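User: Quick sanity check before I run a bigger batch. Here is a single chain. Can you write out its predicted 3D structure?
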Amino acid sequence: MNSPSRAVELYRTGGVPELSRGIRDFAVIRAARARWRVGAALNNSVSVEVGDHHIEFKTDSAIEYRRARTQMHERQILEDYVAELRPSDIVWDAGSNVGLYASFAAEIASQSVAIEPVPSNVSALSRNLSRNDLGDDSTIIAAALGSSEGTVSVPTGSKPGENHKLSSSSGSAQVPVKRGDDLIRATDTPAPSVLAMDVEGAEADALDGLRETLADVRLAYIEVHEGLLSDYRRSVDDVIEILDETGFEISVFDERRSGNYHLKAVDL
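Assistant: Done. Predicted structure follows.
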């Protein structure tokens, strides 16, 4: 565990089970860091294969290496996502991080739109898309999605692959918050037919800003962070309500750790 504050956050998110998971993951990260250090001089990269598709990720840090090597306990979701994608789809990946989902979307679908606010992740995301010759099939938007326009604080010194909860307080860098509906109206960003979302507790706000667009989305994968939603004064009920009101059939796809799970939402 990197710090007492991280232990407190994990305990608040999911009690003893989540804290125990965090301790186990810390051990895995330490092992991944050791493997990464051994191979760093050899230009580390990890190839992720799903079905007939594979993407190669450059890993400049231990967390990037672990994210690519293990898919962060999301292998089942990733396989389902890849199997569901169609060549005609336009995919939005909100909270794209270093591009695991966005890269497969760019290879399979018509267009991939990766939305990511953290500068170090944006750089790694761009690098990974270019490394796989997917830049022409991708758009990167360096912003966060929300229910209203504004700015949020994000760290600038973090390593690629790290997750971060956004804050409205002052911080290392300010990045824009965009309503998805407004983004489509104000720019040439194409509307999605498939939506993937992992935004660390901001999922209800992000979906609120996409209510018009959701009417034309056929499939969505939403990672729910029950313990972090309250930081935005929202709850999982808000997430379910928005998806239900916009015409989706919702199922819990997995429950890989306490308080965090994926919803698969299919247009009725």
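The CA atoms of residues 13 and 227 lie 4 Å apart.

User: Great, the batch can go ahead then.
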